[in-house]
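From the methods appendix. Each design record in this collection lists the tokenized structure first, followed by the designed amino acid sequence. Records were kept in a plain field format so they could be parsed without special tools. The example shown here is representative of the layout used throughout.

RECORD:
FOLD TOKENS (238 positions):
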């Protein structure tokens, strides 16, 4: 079952978006549900944790789409968020809520179909991709998309996720190589840190912030790091 939520205060656009999504989803599965809200307050009041994709209009009154996205991310780090907007000025804020895409209105059917299919495909892959770690007779199965960063501490590795952490005996270089095989957006920003670029909140000088934790970026890597970060951001702008 694919669960989609549309939060849009423009009634006509919401109808068109729903119609387009129904056509697209019927080509993928007959098990889907689309729920509509005309304001952010109603969505938050009736929030469901089993939503796969949120379509949020940024320019809503009172609670904007960005406000709603922030509230969603307080309790949910797995659902995908796609913003619909007539303006591109809010794109920089997407780091904070890890938006999957920004779709600029008016949205053409073929353009929407391309990104919805890509999102669902990535969603399926995400749930299939797990990092398997063996440590002291214990096998850890960690969902890769939930990993925020990995650090070396006193020759031990600590893998940080959104809601937990795992201390293991391993090599940061080996984990970096393993994660590359999954084509994940991880970057070795420092000899002691490997960060998931999708979880970066913002960058300030030679420091990145993930879950309000400060992580250093080596001076000789900062230029390449910013280029890679721009590529990740570029992937979500359409």
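DESIGN:
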């Amino acid at each position: 079952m694919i669960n989609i939520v549309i939060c849009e205060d423009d009634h006509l656009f919401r109808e068109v978006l729903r119609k387009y999504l129904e056509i697209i989803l019927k080509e993928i599965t007959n098990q889907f549900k689309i729920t509509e809200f005309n304001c952010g307050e109603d969505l938050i009041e009736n929030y469901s944790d089993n939503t796969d994709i949120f379509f949020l209009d940024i320019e809503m009154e009172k609670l904007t789409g960005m406000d709603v996205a922030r509230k969603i991310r307080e309790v949910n780090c797995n659902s995908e968020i796609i913003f619909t907007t007539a303006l591109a000025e809010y794109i920089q804020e997407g780091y904070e809520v890890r938006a999957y895409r920004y779709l600029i209105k008016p949205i053409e059917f073929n353009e929407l179909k391309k990104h919805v299919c890509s999102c669902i495909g990535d969603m399926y892959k995400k749930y299939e991709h797990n990092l398997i770690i063996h440590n002291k007779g214990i096998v850890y199965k960690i969902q890769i998309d939930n990993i925020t960063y990995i650090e070396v501490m006193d020759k031990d590795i600590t893998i940080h996720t959104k809601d937990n952490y795992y201390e293991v005996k391993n090599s940061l270089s080996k984990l970096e190589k393993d994660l590359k095989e999954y084509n994940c957006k991880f970057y070795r920003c420092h000899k002691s840190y490997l960060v998931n670029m999708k979880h970066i909140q913002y960058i300030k000088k030679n420091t990145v912030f993930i879950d309000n934790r400060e992580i250093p970026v080596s001076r000789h890597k900062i230029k390449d790091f910013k280029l890679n970060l721009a590529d990740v951001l570029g992937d979500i702008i359409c």
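APPENDIX NOTE: The chain has a mean pLDDT of 87.
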